[in-house]
Write a structure and sequence with these properties.
single chain, three-stranded parallel beta sheet, mainly alpha, 7 strands
Length: 307
């Protein structure tokens, strides 16, 4: 869309805990010399690339070696998602420890702590006429966020930052709301926000042929028989999750993860099965509860896949 309109593009990944600061920016404490810390500096760089751990995990599912390099600064072609999670946790712990030590060295009220205002990507997009995508907007619980967005989309067409600066919406600015309204545990767009959207598209779950095409492009896996069988399981499992109200998912990402796990297993054991790979990928994605996982195995996996 941005390419077609000739606009620069950016995105913001939202969560249930997101507040107005995603749009307005916020004041953050800055300790003297904190930028000299390697771990703190690297962790800040990671945060600038990934909005939160969910965003990082989504990217790690598709390209774990790239995410691992972003986190550690080191190359690891065979990196797995678990390596990314472990590296992220280690880096975060080191950064927090170094921050605490630096702050501990300061004495009295002249602690060397100052506050820096960090403007959000969203505010930059609004002011400069970019296309900005708000991902998972319906997950946000803070009602103040909807009020702020409504003022920006209609009427005032402006955004007030904590510094007092008022940003007026550039006439070229395009705001795209991307919401998984059909998934369990997700909310719906408020009527007041929905009425301010000039164009609305409902994008249905892709059919099996489209899912296979996407997974083939993502993973390079090209066993047509296996892909057809896996696609059937994914569609059935997705409906099963919805019908039973499980707090889980099964879509293209999970399909791709299953295909990659199966390929990796075959590289070590030619007798590996789709069922074994499913037990490590789509089954735990369907639910985190053992009883529900057992239901998935019994009603879907063992019914549709040979042991």
């Amino acid at each position: 869309m941005a390419s077609g309109l000739g606009l620069r593009a950016t995105h913001v990944s939202l969560s249930a805990n997101s507040d107005e600061s995603f749009a307005t920016g916020a004041f953050t404490p800055q300790v003297d010399d904190i930028r000299q810390s390697t771990s703190v500096n690297l962790f800040d760089d990671v945060l600038s690339k990934y909005q939160n751990i969910t965003d990082l995990l989504d990217c790690a599912e598709m390209a774990p070696d790239v995410v691992y390099a972003d986190i550690t600064g080191k190359e690891k072609p065979d990196a797995a998602i678990s390596d990314c999670v472990e590296a992220y946790s280690d880096l975060k712990a080191k950064a927090e420890t170094e921050k605490a030590l630096l702050m501990e060295k300061e004495s009295g009220h002249s602690s060397g702590i100052s506050y820096t205002f960090v403007e959000s990507k969203f505010a930059q997009a609004i002011e400069n006429g970019w296309l900005v995508t708000l991902e998972e907007f319906t997950n946000v619980r803070d009602s103040a966020v909807a009020i702020l967005i409504n003022q920006l989309m209609d009427g005032y067409q402006e955004l007030t930052l904590p510094t007092g600066k008022v940003i007026h919406r550039h006439p070229n600015t395009v705001v795209v709301f991307a919401c998984n309204t059909d998934e369990n545990q997700t909310g719906e767009l408020q009527a007041s926000t929905l009425s301010r959207l000039t164009t609305k598209y409902y994008i249905d779950f892709p059919n099996q042929a489209e899912m296979i095409r996407r997974v083939r492009n993502i993973t390079g896996f090209d066993d047509e028989v296996a892909l057809q069988q896996m696609a059937s399981v994914v569609v059935t499992l997705r409906d099963y999750i919805d019908e039973h109200g499980f707090n889980g998912v099964c879509g293209v990402r999970e399909f791709a993860g299953w295909a990659m796990q199966y390929q990796a297993s075959l590289a070590f054991d030619a007798d590996s099965t789709l069922r074994e790979a499913a037990m490590e990928t789509i089954v735990p994605s369907a639910s985190t509860h053992r009883e529900e996982m057992n239901e998935v195995i019994k009603d879907v996996i063992d019914t549709m896949l040979a042991a």
